[in-house]
Amino acid sequence: MKMIVVFEKTPRLRHIGHLDLMRAMQRALRRSGLPLKYSQGFNPHILLTFAAPLSVGMPGKREIMEVPIEGEMTGEAFLEKLRPALPPELPCLWARPVDDRHSAPMAQLAAALYEAELDETPSGLSDAVTAFLAQEEIPALRKTKTGLKPCDIRPMIYDLSLNSGKLRMCLALCEKATCKPDLLLSSLFEFAKLPRPHAIVTRTQMFGKKDGAFYPLEEM
Amino acid sequence: MNEQENKRLEELLETVQKPARYIGGEMNAVRKDWNGVRCTFGFCFADTYEIGMSHLGMKILYYLINQRPDALCERLFMPDADMADKMRDAGVPLFSLESRAALNEFDIIGFTLQYEMSYTNILEMLDLGRVPIRREDRSDQDTIVVAGGPCAFNPEPLAPFIDAFMIGDGEDVMHELIDVIRNGREAGLSRMDILKNLAKLEGVYVPALYDVEYNEDGTLKSFSPNDPAAPAKVKKRVVKDLSGAVYPEAIPVPYTEIVHDRMVLEIMRGCTRGCRFCQAGMLYRPVRERSMERLLELADKLQASTGYEEMSLSSLSSGDFTCLPQLIQALMDRYKDKRVSVSLPSMRIDNIVKQSLEETQQVKKSGLTLAPEAGTQRLRDVINKGVTEEDLIRSVTDAFECGWSTVKLYFMMGLPTETDEDLQGIGDLAKKVVDAFYRVPKEKRAKMGVKVTASASVFVPKPFTPFQWAAQDTIDMVHEKQAKLRQYLKLKNVNFNWHESELSMLEACVSRGDRRMGEVIYAAWKRGCRLDSWNEHFKFDQWMGAFQDCGLSPAFYAYRERPYDELLPWAFVDAGVSMDYLKKENEKAKRVETTRDCRHGCNGCGLNTWGVCDWVKNPPLKDKPQTAAPLAD
Q1: From the CA of B339, how many Å to the nearest CA of chain A?
Q2: What's the pLDDT tens digit per position in A117-132?
């Protein structure tokens, strides 16, 4: 069976890169004594997949990984073993067993919610957000492997709101279309003609899509 | 660190190279409440995180101090140049990884001295941490700065900056040192009174309590205590029973990659071989082995607490460990199902391993590392390196038959009595290693072919070795020899690496320096020197300027053969190995005479009178074959 696990990458660890985080998780799983599955081949490693890599510098409140295990086990029993094997800065929060045939979180991922904590909120930003969203098209330059590419990010913005210094953004995050929070922020402040304040952006939730509606990815 | 500094730090972490080095929060990092302890210890490593976190001594002492309910220990490393500059600009002090405490908030800060060319980093760290750099500028309220480790055996070059040195095995003296400082602080004693109490501990050297005089020619005239609390001789501390000594059962597991990212089992301390250039081999005497029982217990605990997938054995000469085959077998049996690979001593890839290799992939086939040190048997005899060409070729052949295909060969150039023939010998030996590979049948050897890397470092005479009186080759001589070696090593499948001769010359100056060398280090740091061992930061011209500033000559320290009757700056340290023994060994070297490995019979190096050496009792064994030679780590 497989375990869908929710964990937090706390702000202190936000500078840990994806591969380093992966290795840290594999070592934690080895410490846990859980019945893990290993890859075949010359250098076997623990089977483990993350729903989506987190950018360096970004904390994640509800990050998701999928861990195949041998035998049957409840989510609570899994957490009980994994919890002491993790440092306080990388706590696991929730786990749910699913069938081996269950579609991987990575494949079901559709969107993510981000929260940007602005060091200061320029006056007029609130109005700018409304006007920004009222546009039918938002041309932007997306970084790709082959260089900057023009694209329209409006359809990838599902929600954008400003609340007491926090900018909440719900953005497309899947194989077909991804809008990174940084791209949205630079578009927004350029459109508003306001200086962009320093902000730590946290990914707070990931979503899957079913029948046109979004659901927390871990519950899909 | 206050809230504002903390916020500034968060911002600058977004702009520096490899920020993961500065965040801590690793598994097994110890977080203690500052209000719940009576003494705080900031453990400083004067190099970057990747280097420092690979160091075993720090892990031992970090664990040992944090075991005390009344104390806490946190880690501080040298920031890389970009980070150091940004911290200074932003007003962020040097901070500990655990609780981001500024260096000057600790009751005690301790540096481990692993390498002389990291000394400018010590000054940089003190300065970034807002601790007065010179000890005479520190007040009663300032933190007490201590240092230990192998380079503390000649403490003089750091005497202007360090309040107290611990000489010898750190785990033996650390508790006493903390007790004295904690009690002194709680009783409101002055800084000087605390230091005097420290000087009464065996193995502790307090430079403020000693006066130095020089002759007109610059040599030492006298070195003597100026206070009854200070002993004339400072005797090194020795852990007698290694099995009973504290060893970490959990170590911080870094997120970011470090130089040695694995579990390390220290199987023994000390070395019996007596190579005449080797400082560690003399300083860490006598040889003490950890029991199999204890090693297996530690291996299990470390494996469970770290989750590491690789384990290596550590000592100066692991091939000499009495129960090596049994230990390797036991480790392999234990970890077969846990998918832990074991790195082996390079010279012992013999039958036991061959068999295990067929069964599992448990042996990590990282490159072989061998250290013949010299190119001819004559010169190997001069330096008493008990390895023959036959040993070496047999070892690499064994390994090649098991599928190994990369070999690193370490050599030194500039050894006493070296001639051109010895340099040619390095080329010949590299060639023979390549030939040995191609003599292994095709179906047995690795398909990708053999890769030999020959590295030649520059010999640096070190205190407490038989060569401590020797002159180092000048930079010009070294350049000439390097050019020749490049010719001799223009061979197929062979790469040649060499070291910066300028750095080696400075290392020779600092390692055998006196108290005035501290002023040179200070002047060099003032001129912007730091991270000297990193090529991109090394500023040789500034170092030369620093010597000029102080009116001292590098040649006096590095290039001069010192007479036996000269008072050496480190002569007040009793390292166990006697000066008479070192002289005798130096004379034997001149006569190309070897000295036996003291496992085969005591050679009377001096430690035999201390009652700490188990090998003293060993009768000389006549027929015991000389075991294979040690590896280079």
Answers
A1: 8
A2: 999 999 999 999 999 9
**Residue in chain A nearest B337 by alpha carbon:** A38
Chain A residues with CB-CB distance to B24 below 8 A? 12
Number of domains in chain A: 2
pLDDT (tens digit, 9 = 90+) per residue, B333-371?
A: 888 778 888 887 665 555 555 655 555 455 666 678 888
How many residues make up chain A in this entry?
Answer: 220
Degrees (nearest 5) of the Cα angle B530, B531, B536? 110
Asked if A174 and A140 sit in the same domain, the reply is yes
Q: Looking at the structure, tell me whether residues A154 and A202 fall in a common domain.
A: yes
Q: With the CA atoms of B208, B210, B211 and B212 taken in that order, what torsion angle do they form, in degrees rounded to the nearest 10?
A: -110
Chain A residue with CA closest to B28: the answer is A87
> DSSP E strands: which ranges in A71-165?
92-98, 109-118, 139-144, 147-152, 157-163
Tell me what the mean pLDDT of segment B133-146 comes to: 97
- A-chain CB neighbours of B307 within 8 Å are 26-31, 85
Identify which of B20, B28, B308 has the shortest CB distance to residue A16. Answer: B20
**pLDDT tens digits for range A47-88:** 999 999 999 999 999 999 999 999 999 999 999 999 999 999
Closest CA to B80 of B158, B122, B17: B17
- Supply the CATH number for residue A32's domain: 3.30.70.580
For B550, residues 6+ apart whose C-beta sits below 8 A from its C-beta are: B516, B519, B520, B523
Contact A13 B257 (CB under 8 A): no
Domain extent listing, chain B? 3-235, 263-516+552-617
Separation between Cα atoms, residue B334 and residue B328, nearest integer Å:
10
**What whole-number distance in Å separates Cα of residue B289 and Cα of residue B613?**
11
* CATH of span B3-235: 3.40.50.280
On whether both A12 and A83 belong to a single domain, the answer is yes
CB pairs under 8 A between A and B: 64
Query: Closest to B19 (Cβ–Cβ): which among A15, A21, A28?
Result: A15
Which of the four pLDDT bands, split at 50, 70 and 90, describes residue B633?
A: very low
What fold, for B263-516+552-617? pyruvate-formate lyase- activating enzyme (3.80.30)
Write out chain A residues lying below 8 Å of B31, CB-based.
88
Do A129 and A83 lie in one domain? The reply is no
For B23, the closest of A13, A43, A86 (CB atoms) is: A13
Range of the domain at A68: 2-102
In the block, tokens 């699913």 appear at: A98
